Amino acid sequence: MPCSDDPARRAVGLRSQIEHHNVRYHQLDEPEVTDAEYDALVRELALIEEAHPDLVTADSPTRTVGAAPSPLFAEVEHLVPMMSLDNAVSLEELLAWGKRMERFISGDVDYVCELKIDGVAVSLLYEDGRYARAATRGDGRRGEDITPNVATVDAIPDCLDRAGDEPPRLLEVRGEIYMPLSAFEQLNQRQAEEGGRLFANPRNAGAGSLRQKDPGITASRHLGFWAYQAGTIEGGPVLTRHSETLDYLRSLGLPVNPEVTTVASLDDVYGFCGRWLEHRHDLDYEIDGVVVKVDDLAQRRELGATSKAPRWAIAFKFPPEERTTLLKNIMVSIGRTGKATPFAELEPVFVGGSTVGLSTLHNEDQVRKKDVRPGDTVIVRKAGDVIPEVVGPVPSLRPEGLPEWTFPTACPVCAHPLVRLPGVSDTFCTNVECPAQRYGRIEHFASRGAMDIEGLGERTVRLFVDLGLLDDVGDIYTLDFDRVGELEGFGEISVRNLRDAVERAKQRPLANLLAGLNIAHLGVTGSRALARSMGHLDRIMAASTEELAAVEGVGPTIAASVRQFFDNEANRAVVEKLRAAGVNFEGPGAPDVPQTLAGVSLVVTGTLERWSREAAEEAIKARGGKAPGTVSKKTAAVVVGESPGTAKLAKASEIGLPILDEDAFERVLEHGLEADG
User: Fold this and answer.
1) Quick check: do 7-55 and 322-407 share a fold?
2) In this structure, which long-range contacts are made by residues 637-641, counting pairs with CB atoms below 8 Å and at least 24 apart in sequence?
3) Beta strand pairing status for 86-88 and 313-317?
4) Which DSSP letter does residue 24 get?
5) pLDDT score at 6
6) Where are the domains of the chain?
7) Whole-number pLDDT of residue 27
8) Chain-centre distance of CA 432, in angstroms?
9) Which of 237, 434, 504, 606 could disulfide-pair with 641, CB 3.0 to 4.6 Å?
10) C-alpha span between 431 and 447 (Å, rounded)
11) pLDDT at residue 396 above 60?
12) What three-state secondary structure class fits 428?
């Protein structure tokens, strides 16, 4: 908690900030802070009020829900208040919640774990089985009437299924309306094409889609819905557990999330949270935690609620993947192909499990579409191991008169002109001898996806180039190791390890060599295709554009680029250096491998013990098969290792596909699918 000599003044300031953010989040759908930053403000206020009970006010944000309904819509009074949830961010806080419950109830407790959907909470009312009304949560007692808009959401039925009996006379069901990630990407693509504002995230896009005066706009946004609670049931069955309620809602035709689990201990709850923290990105919708609820409805009644939240439920929040910070500057880096990429220099911020100070902005068009400017407060997103991304600015916090950023016209490294060719989004440095390009070409050649030369990373490459030890990738194999040993930081062991790594790299497969040569448009997949089809670098160098394009997985654009690369005398000179050094030029020819999987599609998911993901997929392709990244009806089987993707397994189960462990996979590689029944 920030230091303050006056808790009363700090509490007043926090309440003002929180109310401001409530309006921007709940009414305007234009938040200025992320959920994590908002939660931190509420937590700080709660700590002050706990230490100074005399400062608590009846309308404090720690005791109220959401925000008053927007005046743009008619008000709706909820039949039963829609409360908020208390939060936990650690096992200790989860266990503390369990201890608090013990004061009100005794005996064993079962818990229902549900994914916390990052969407908009809504209440749906059905009368005699027919959809009658929909409302936002609002301030918990009164929400906004969004009945026509919600009626356009395909997942929400107009009439309930009878489930063998008459539907209830009255049913109020609570749930979350969300925008699928696929729909979000399509929406932002349309916005970009039409010159519209890009949405920062699916939650804001979904909320904005619901608050449209024209329901047709809502319908075009392809929203989804998950039901998670019954507020009122009149004329229905007697239900004693929350899990029964979810089953009942499902039987009525309401969509209930399939990832709901009932467990018997808080340790099991924590395990569920951990699994979904790891696999949160396997889904086509965003989750920001897990909601934990007491299953027994009688125990819930014993527990009761505070003025704001039920005691029988808690939200376990995942670490934030979005934060706001200051965009200090936009600079440009020059890559191995000469591509000039703008990137953001940020006020360092802890997000997604690490401190982020830099973030890519991709190209000139992306900077313009996002309209980010040095001096902006921006939203930064980092999901797992994904490269940090500047999502967009917080417009309401932009200083007045802040100028737009313009792309530089000269290379920041060599001062040669930067050129953007017609019809492309990228800008390039025109000087092939630009030091930045030389660094990049050698770094890429030595990288793990290419020749995998351990010890020859970015800093070492730049040092060697600056000292004249390396000029191009061919010089790697004739390095003066005696001189390297004289450099500070290079002892006998490190020099020996680097020498051994360079020697091992001579035997890398042809596909790795091709991928490392920095041929425009030629990636790992195309390199493997050429290596399999032609079997030797000399044959690739001698092939015509037409012959190269005829290779499956290559095509005319890559073929032309390969032909252009090897027609360049400087590139051929580098190839001869590699030949003289004894670098492997041979690759697997298609006839050398039995085509046991010709036309067969296998999906690999999870971590295999004896195969990397790339090696497993390459083995499938070498035998004539296909290795797509997603499961479909065209998939023949799924190869499953440790920690597989939940969505892929669910789809495989739905279709009824065979599941192969590592041993079965190897039998299939050798003999085909019939080998494993």
Assistant:
1) no
2) 637/602, 637/603, 637/668, 637/673, 637/676, 638/602, 638/603, 638/604, 638/605, 639/602, 639/603, 639/604, 639/605, 639/608, 639/665, 640/605, 640/606, 641/604, 641/605, 641/606, 641/607, 641/608, 641/609
3) parallel
4) I
5) 84
6) 7-55, 84-317, 322-407, 435-581, 593-676
7) 64
8) 35
9) 606
10) 23
11) yes
12) strand
* pLDDT exceeds 70 at position 4: no
Looking at domain 84-317, its CATH architecture is 2-Layer Sandwich (3.30)
Mean pLDDT of 244-267: 94
The string of pLDDT tens digits covering residues 418-473 is 999 787 788 999 898 899 999 999 999 998 778 989 999 999 999 999 999 999 99
Q: Is residue 553 scored above 90 in pLDDT?
A: no
> Can you tell me whether residue 174 is helix, strand or coil?
strand
CA atoms within 13 A on the CB side of 482: 0
**The length of the chain, given as a count of residues:** 677
583 forms bridges with which residues in the sheet? none
Inter-CA distances, 330 with 67, 391, 406, Å: 37, 14, 9
The whole-number average pLDDT for the span 10-27 is 80
Instruction: With H, G, I as helix, E, B as strand and everything else as coil, classify residue 185.
Output: helix
pLDDT band at 645 (very low <50, low <70, confident <90, very high): confident
Query: 435-581 belongs to which CATH class?
Result: mainly alpha
Query: Tokens at residue 213, please?
Result: 């005066």
pLDDT at 26: 65
Q: What is the predicted pLDDT for the residue at 7?
A: 85
Q: Which long-range contacts (CB under 8 A, 24 or more apart) does 409-413 make?
A: 411/334, 411/340, 411/436, 412/331, 412/332, 412/334, 413/334
524: confidence class by pLDDT, cuts 50, 70, 90: confident
337 CA to centre of own chain: 27
Cα–Cα nearest to 290, from 91, 54, 457, 446: 91
Task: Return the amino acid letter for 263.
Answer: V
Give Cβ neighbours of residue 671 (< 8 Å, ≥ 6 apart).
596
Percent of the chain with pLDDT over 70: 95
| 3-state SS track over 25-76 | HHHCCCCCCCHHHHHHHHHHHHHHHHHCHHHCCCCCCCCCCCCCCCCCCCEE
CATH class entry, domain 593-676:
alpha beta
Phi, psi of 504, deg, nearest 5: -65, -35
Mean pLDDT of 33-56: 82
For domain 7-55, say whether CATH 1.10.3210.10 is its number: no
Contacts of 619 (CB under 8 A, 6+ apart): 611, 669
Q: Give 3-state DSSP helix, strand, coil % of the chain, rounded to 5.
A: 40, 20, 40
* Packing angle of the helix pair 613-622, 524-534 (nearest 10 deg): 40
In this predicted structure, what is the pLDDT of residue 2? 44
Q: 76: which 2 tokens?
A: 């709706």
User: Nearest to residue 179, comparing CAs of 117, 227, 251?
Assistant: 117
Contact 65, 137 (CB under 8 A): yes
How many Å apart are CA 379 and CA 326, to the nearest integer?
Answer: 9
Q: Side chain identity at 150, as an amino acid letter? A: V
Q: How many alpha carbons fall within 13 Å on the CB side of residue 397?
A: 21
Cα 305 to Cα 58, 145, 202, 463, distances in angstroms: 16, 26, 31, 64
Q: Can you tell me the distance from the alpha carbon of 410 to that of 635, in angstroms, rounded to the nearest whole number?
A: 49
Catalytically active residues, by annotation: 116
pLDDT digits 0-9 by tens, 339-352: 899 999 999 988 87
Q: Count Cβ atoms below 10 Å from residue 108 Cβ, excluding itself.
A: 9
